[in-house]
Design a protein that fits this description.
By secondary structure, the chain is mostly beta strands. It is built from 1 helix and 9 strands. A hairpin with a 2-residue loop joins strand 4 and strand 5. The longest helix is centred in the middle third of the chain and has 4 residues. InterPro entries: Ig-like_dom, Ig-like_dom_sf, Ig-like_fold, Ig_sub, Ig_V-set, IgSF_BTN/MOG. Keywords: Disulfide bond, Glycoprotein, Immunoglobulin domain, Membrane, Signal.
């Protein structure tokens, strides 16, 4: 699990192996522990798509676009709140394959 302190920022780790560029891929982060999976962050067609992002996460999530070139799809979550605690799924998709990873966030 990844540990965070309420009020601080945290990085939820996720990356493509081998370290190939993820710039042309779709990167989707969502909460996988809720009854209805909740979108946390979506990167598609070379830009962040925040229109379907819940207000709760708006302005608090960020992918490092320079790091995407190195296959790093980690998500920065700012101003962590106790309600952010849970399981997050990082889903990466290209034209030829897809993969995902689960990150458990614990908030102290």
């Amino acid at each position: 699990p990844v540990f965070a302190v309420a009020g601080e920022d945290v990085i939820l780790p996720c990356s493509v192996k081998p370290n190939i560029s993820a710039v042309d891929m779709r990167v989707e982060w969502f909460r996988s522990d809720l009854k209805e999976a909740q979108l946390v962050h979506l990167y598609e067609d070379h830009e962040d798509r925040t229109t379907d992002q819940p207000d709760f996460y708006r302005g608090r999530t960020k992918l490092n676009h320079q790091e995407l070139q190195r296959g790093n799809t980690s998500l920065k979550l700012s101003s962590v709140q106790v309600s952010d605690e849970g399981s997050y799924k990082c889903f990466i998709e290209s034209k030829s394959w897809s993969d995902d990873a689960i990150v458990d966030l614990r908030v102290e």
